[in-house]
Amino acid sequence: MFWKDSSGWKDSSGREQNGVGPFGQVRVLVVGDSGVGKSSLVHLILKGSSIARPAQTVGCAVGIKHVTYGSAGGSSNNISNDAERNFFVELWDVSGHERYKACRSIFYTQINGVIFVYDLSQRKTKTNLNKWAVEVAETGTFSAPLGSGGPGGLPVPYLVIANKVDTVPRDGTRVRSGSIVDVARQWIEKQGLLPCSEELPLTESFPGNSGLVSAAKEARYDKEAVIKFFRMVCLEFFHWFVFPLLILIC
């Protein structure tokens, strides 16, 4: 929470915000199949802690994350990247349950970025990310679009996170199989017919998978990478909307 008095902007603890108020607001979708741990991951990002039994998301749940970028010593009148900028990142945790498929598009408005989440132990949840990308790209509206260079024609920055890394043993074998393809692959590997590093034919890959993993139930994720993504989304918004406005004012 932010408020302003005669000395400038402050946060809920009363600390001054270097004369810089909330500078913008961006919207990031969090999508993926039901049960991959999206709500647990969002809770971890927002609260910094795990949640034992997250309730099933009904339609969509929204959380807010405060993000800054730039130097705290920068002037609020400086439009360079050296000035500190405050942003509120809205995380829209969209239910992956099939019953909401027909109405999910009402949440796909004014999108600035997308986080795709899949279950590392369930191969199908990864291949289904392509369907999610197409669904968002075809039915959504976007703020500060970059072009259609992303998966499914997605025109905004995106991040891919493989959740539930804690369910996969370190030797690479899976605790449970998500599909017949996984069972077949494991059997072929055991017979020595396919190296473990190879994929079976027709297994879909998802572009942009940088190996970012998390274990939301164990409160483990790459915080630095996620914050870097948020700042990139905020920067795109700043250059698309705010920077031209400041030039017009000047």
Automatic annotation (TrEMBL):
Keywords: GTP-binding, Nucleotide-binding. It comes from the Eukaryota. Pfam families: Roc. One of its GO terms (molecular function) is GTP binding. The keyword DNA repair does not apply. Belongs to the small GTPase superfamily. PANTHER family: DRAB5-RELATED. This is Uncharacterized protein.
